[in-house]
Amino acid sequence: MNHANRFYLFITISLVIAVITGGVILITKHNKSQSIKITLSQASLPQQSGEVYIGGAIANPGLYPLGENDTIQTLLSITGPESDADLSHIKIYIPHEGEEQLHQKVDINRADPWLLVAVPGIGNVLGQRIIHYRSENGPFKRIEGLLKVDGIGEGTFNEIKGYITVSD
């Protein structure tokens, strides 16, 4: 065997030994390694209660009471998502303490009596009158249409006009 062939044989045997040794080391380290256990701490959340504003593609947008055990599903069942609502994208916004919050606008063409009563200045009687007027005369075209409802004058209208809206 000539000198070049011995050199190539030596290199080949050295590479085979290196590959086998590396494989043995990897296998033994892999078998000895322990699995990593990740534990997420369960921070206790503050008790959720108060009110939550729900708007967007729902039948009755507005402020709703939020109980300790309420879920998003519970709130959606109350608000009545519209047929084209994209429920795969729900936004939740939590304001900072002291942040100015805009008041809700209640759609007088869709609101149930209990939601109308939530508007400052509308009680049970006016809420029922609004529902009755709406069912007899059709939807309101403008919020000023409330002036035609028995018991709502300029004073009451001026008090509630910032809280109401109409839809088509």
Verbal overview:
The chain has a two-stranded antiparallel sheet. The longest helix is centred in the first third of the chain and has 30 residues. The N and C termini lie far apart (98 Å). 13% of the residues are buried. With 168 residues, the protein is mainly alpha-helical. The chain contains five helices and four strands; from the N terminus they run αββαβαααβ. Strand 1 and strand 2 form a beta hairpin. Among the domains are: 30 residues, no CATH class; 60 residues, DNA polymerase, domain 1 (Orthogonal Bundle), CATH 1.10.150.320.
Write the layout of secondary structure elements.
Elements: H1 3-32, E1 50-54, E2 62-66, H2 72-79, E3 106-107, H3 113-117, H4 124-137, H5 154-160, E4 164-165
Parallel strand pairs: 3-4
Antiparallel strand pairs: 1-2
Brief synopsis:
This protein is mainly α and 168 residues long.
What key attributes describe this structure?
single chain; 168 residues; mainly alpha; DNA polymerase, domain 1; two-stranded antiparallel ribbon; two-stranded parallel ribbon; 5 helices; 4 strands
Oligomer: single chain
Count of helical stretches: 5
Identify the CATH architecture of the domain at 106-165. Answer: Orthogonal Bundle
State the strand order across the main sheet.
1-2
| pLDDT averaged residue by residue | 80
Tell me about the largest β-sheet: 2 strands, antiparallel
CATH homologous superfamily (4th level) name of the domain at 106-165: Photosystem II 12 kDa extrinsic protein
* Low-pLDDT segments: none
Assign a percent range to the helix content. Answer: 25-40%
Looking at the structure, the CATH topology of the domain at 106-165 is DNA polymerase, domain 1
Structural class: mainly alpha
Strand content: 5-15%
